[in-house]
Amino acid sequence: MAGTSEFKRVLLKVSGEVLMGDGEFGLEPQMVSRIASDIAEVHKEGLELCLVVGGGNIFRGVSVAAEGMERTSADYMGMLATVMNALALQSALEACGVPTRVLSAIPMSTVCEPYIRRRSIRHMEKGRVVIFAAGTGNPYFTTDTAAALRASEMDCDCLLKGTKVDGVYAADPEEVPDAERFDELTHFDVLQRDLKVMDAAAITLCRENDIPILVFSIQNAGEVNRVLHGEGRCTIVRGEK
User: Fold this and answer.
1) Dihedral angle at the C-alpha atoms of 42, 210, 204, 149, nearest 10 degrees?
2) Would the CA dihedral through 22, 172, 213, 75 be positive or negative?
3) What is the pLDDT of residues 76-117, one digit of tens each?
4) Residues 10-61: tens digit of each pLDDT
């Protein structure tokens, strides 16, 4: 993978769990600030950048639904959690001198802008980092699917998925220490092997729109920039050759 010169516009998906650092839930300010610093470093290079952030550090809808709560209500609560994370990232980014806008799929004009595709593109063209909140605005869709959808709508050159692990493995490396790690896969490989990179809807969207996915550990400081330069450790998921 070549350096940032081959990319004009990139979407970064930030896992909600990463934002809680070493805690069991919530936000760890130091981790939020460090991730914002990494994003600011990339932004200085002139890349058009947008983000989708998860909400698992605050509320995970599926797990609560499994305990008896009605699934739709649980998912909406999860979407609101992503808005909280988006506002935290916005504050941290602006402390780094990066202009940002939060756009929510669920209108809440008091705290952020509603999601409008053309407005989002215009913000990026003006050098602002756009943070997409509230997922797709619909229950039964994950924030991974929201990331793939927004990357497609924004005509992004690639989707970066920042997680706790440094790539795609055949099994959870925390549970299976010797699990096979992949350097490169196709979208079809991921679907066929049922690898837990992103959900099937997200992978299918990226496959149909020919969007490569770079999976890396955002817990490593400076890794966003290194991955974009082809120097970081990641797994590349792209279309069939």
Assistant:
1) 50
2) negative
3) 999 999 999 999 999 999 999 999 999 999 999 999 999 999
4) 999 999 999 998 888 889 999 999 999 999 999 999 999 999 999 989 876 6
Give, in degrees to the nearest 5, the angle at Cα 115 between 41 and 238: 55
Q: Which long-range contacts (CB under 8 A, 24 or more apart) does 117-124 make?
A: 117/153, 117/154, 120/50, 120/150, 120/153, 120/154, 121/154, 124/9, 124/48, 124/49, 124/50, 124/154
Per the DSSP assignment, residues forming a β-bridge with 97 are none
Query: Tens of pLDDT along 148-157?
Result: 999 999 999 9
Kind of pairing, strands 184-186 and 213-217? Answer: unpaired
Helix and strand totals (H; E) in the chain: 8, 11
| 4-238 classified as CATH 3.40.50.2000 | no
How is residue 126 annotated by DSSP? T
Query: Cα 43 vs. chain centroid, distance in angstroms?
Result: 16
The CA-atom distances, in angstroms, between 216 and each of 68, 80, 154, 209, 219 are: 34, 26, 22, 21, 9
- Structural Rg of the chain based on CA atoms: 17
Residue spans of the domains in the chain: they are 4-238
Among 143, 176, 178, 179, CA closest to 161:
143
Question: What φ, ψ does residue 214 adopt, rounded to 5°?
Answer: -110, 115
Cβ-contact 86, 131 below 8 angstroms: yes
